[in-house]
Amino acid sequence: PILGSPIYWGLQWVSRLGLFTYVFFLAHEYVHTHPLTHSGQKSLPDTPAMAAPESVHDAETASAAVSAAAAIREATTSRLGDAPDEEVLKAVGAELSVLRAAGEKALAEQAAVLLPLAEALLKNGSLEEALSAAGEAERISRALHDAGGEAAALKVVAEAERRSGRLEAALTATCARAVALGAAGEGQGQLIACRHTEAHLLMGLGRPEEALEIAEEALQLARAAQDVEQQAASLRVLAQAHLLQCEYRHGVPDKALPLVQEALALYQQLQHARGQALTLHTTAQVLLTLQGPEEALSPFQEALALFRQLVTQSELRELAKDNEARVLNSIACTHIVAKELKDGFEALGLALMIFRDIEDAHGEACSWHAAAVACLMPQGGNCEAISQMADAHARDDEDEASLVPVGQPRQVSQRPRLGDPAEKWATWAFERALKQFQDSGDQIGEIAARHSLAGLLVTAGDLEEGVLLERQAVTLCRKMPAAPPRLFAATSLGLSRALLMLGRIGDSRMAAAEALRVLVAFGDHSLCSTARHALLDVHVCADDLVSALGVAADECGACKAIGDVKGEATALRALASIRLLDGEFEQAQRLAQESRHRAKDAKDLDLEAAALRKLADIHLAMEEPSQAVEFVNQIRVLYKQAGETKREAAALLYLADMEQPEQAAGVAREARDISRSSGDFKGEVAALYALSSIAVGQEDFAGALEAVQEARAVGQTAGDKLLEADALRTISNVHLLAKDQGKAEAAVCELRSLCQKVGDVKGEVSALQALSDLHRGSKKREMAIQALEEMRELCQKSGDCKLEAAALHALSDLRVSMDEPEEAARAAYEAGVLQKKAGDARGEAHALLKAARLQAAKAVEGDAATEGVVRTSMEALALFERVGDQRGAVDALRTAAAAHFAAGAPDEAVAACDRSLAHLDLLGDRAAKAEIFHWAADMLAEKGSPDLYIAAAEKAVALHREAESRPGRLGLALLTLAKARQSASSARAEGDVKAAASTQEARGRTRQVLEAATESAALLVRAAPEDVDPALCGEAFQLTAQAHLLEGDSGGALCAARLAAAAHSAAQNSLGMGRALLLLGRAHLLRRQRGDARRAAQAALESFRWCRGDGSVEDVKQAKELLAAC
Predict the structure, then answer these.
(1) SS3 for 125-162, per residue?
(2) Which of 109, 509, 877, 974 fits as disulfide partner to 892, beta carbons 3.0 to 4.6 Å?
(3) 741 with 774: CB under 8 angstroms?
């Protein structure tokens, strides 16, 4: 295989390197499954295919015809030679047309011409014409009962089908050929070789168990025939089947090693150079999987040396060159795994030269894919190496035209989010590999390239494009008859990760669950753990702690069952995190301690430190900082004893965050000194920033500046411009905190100058943004606008549409602060146009939504004024739905609903709220479903019919109950419902109580108000203080008191009014307290307690004097009426 063993180098080597897991999915049996393509294919003049002839019953006639045809076949083969030109092919085709015209008497002569013609066409790469000619020869041979001729024709058919990518058809033809060989009584050698081809085709179809059976049968035949060469070949095929079986049924290919060793010994005994080379290649693949790159490199190099010797033999030159290139690819990837990138790139360059020479697009694709992965590794010089490869191995005219002189910049990628040159070159190489995999019909290679490119784009922040590529890769995996489980799972997990970053939690959960199902069936524990932790992250992000606990418990049980102590420690820590999120501190503490013990058993410092840090987090949440500090100190001691200075310094910085400022500064200095002595300049800078933060907290701005200036000096000494730029940003921020606007602006200008010198466009854009913010803060709005205009011009010159859009968004925000909504909306809309141009559908949607909200801010109430808001919101909605952003869709619908409310169209507004429920269902956010109708009910309180108001409030309450919302949220929804019912009631508490309670209908409405208000008050009283304003508790008690009064229940009214007064007093709400006291006075009056009623009315009047609310005049009037009644 091109990139190593079919086990894809072993997952353990991937995880050690931290490379993309998808690199290794390219490896598969290329030589047996890949359809070759050739430019310059030749074809014959169109001739109609002859119908299958009837069987010739006269055996003697048939035998004579076959014998006579032998001479014709020999002569035709001689004429065609090794490389027939166009004229010879046309001449033979013309002769064939004459023979066809002679009818059935010339059948044998036709077959004699057809078969060598088909072989020549196959050699020329004219696959369909070769298939047609060989098919006709096979039908004629069968009619003549010529089993040998039939087998020879079927061999060409099978090869043509294989090269065309139709492996099932190739397998059918190969099986038929085996039957024909048996009937012909040919030697066992051909039959065994046919079985080898059958096994290879089965491996290409992802059926390794069947391939193993066929290879075993071939080995038995070879041993029975005492054919040593075929025995060796059978052993090699059997080893390859064992390797591939481990890709579909997890295991270690330990059975493969003795097989290839025996095969190699037999080939050496025969002095069979090509067999030795092929077997050494397979041996290296097995060793790479079992023992790693160090053991595999030597046999790879031996195989390469043998193939290079074979290139000198003319009859094997092309095949040997192909094998040489594949071995070079394997050697390159082995060097890449071992982080020997210089040697890896050198081998890839040589392989590319050969692949281009023999016009093998698939081989080139594998090489470019490997080069892209190597380019992303942290060692230096990668961009230069891949650039040299690109210039030396351009394939088509367009690429040739794009080559530029040495030293001139090459536009390798126009993707806006890619800033790092290595990322740009890797993207260029991945895209090139993807196209060549598609051209060569290699689905596994195409899936791997899509997955690779998606992972890079997601890392760079281009989430929408990453999701699209990952989804395409997953779809291709599903369509394959037997996709390798690791490849399928890797693409599904990549899709889940990208969707989670986009906030599409429901889709992310489904993708992670699918990956887990595939891996559980596959049986790889380590990959199952990866999938479970991915699914766990999704559940936690969805706030679904019950499901998260279930997944973490499954992971813990699986690790315990196989004795994976490290995995168990990690799973226990995850369980502790979930319990901590749920507020179950004691259980969290117990689980974290268990995790620590398992980490100690595994003798893993990092796992033990992670458990200690989790214990510190738990004690911080329990408001026990001293114990948290003790656990962090233990982390520090742990790393100090192990001599891990970088981690020790990091632990000290974590400790500094917990200590009091005086102690924290000393701890941060200690971390700085440790990093400085160990030569870790990044750690030193981090400690200096910590010192700066501590100084700022104490308003010691001079000390903060001193620390940051020192950090800048470290960056300058290390030659790290990024560190220096970060320091200048921080210096500007410190000056701003010290209220020294001039120095802050000077630091930002210096930052811009530095970015200009090093050609950092993004840094310069960031500096202009900061400068605009500074001008805006100092009310220099025209200068702020000028800075943003410069920023936009810079983005236009760089051709970065997304950066230009960001500048327009900043300009829009500035216009909002200047109370210029029309200009702000225009800038937001222009940003959306740019994001559309950049292919950023999500960004375009957010820009449109922003424009819609700004339009709404300046709209005058009425249909015409709000029509544009609704239209723009619906445009944004369509885009959000297209990219699957459910949260954005809800926001767009809510904006549209608000516009409908403003236009006096409550029915349309409620319909928009109803439509948002489907999107919230996909998010799994039941609480948000309730909140959207709670908001709608509040809007309907002023606009809309009472029936709509009550219906929206009732729906909000029902959805909160379904979501099992916190007491405070449900209590507020019930309060809104009580208000809605009260507003719909024809009776008013201020009127004649007895008259209001006289009708049956009024009693029913009052009872409904009382039920909702009473439950609301009970829930709000026991709600968390941060969830509810005490004044709202007072409102709930007020409504309860009013309903009791309407029912004539003076006792209930007294109790509720007192509680309302107490709640409003706690909230320092004079108006609410006065109204509660007014209700209290009415309750006393109803009980004929005139003295108490008078005192309550007087207290109410006193409260109303303190407030200046709109309702205070009417309230004072009612209080005076109550005094008069007393």
Answers:
(1) CCHHHHHHHHHHHHHHHHHCCCHHHHHHHHHHHHHHHH
(2) 877
(3) yes
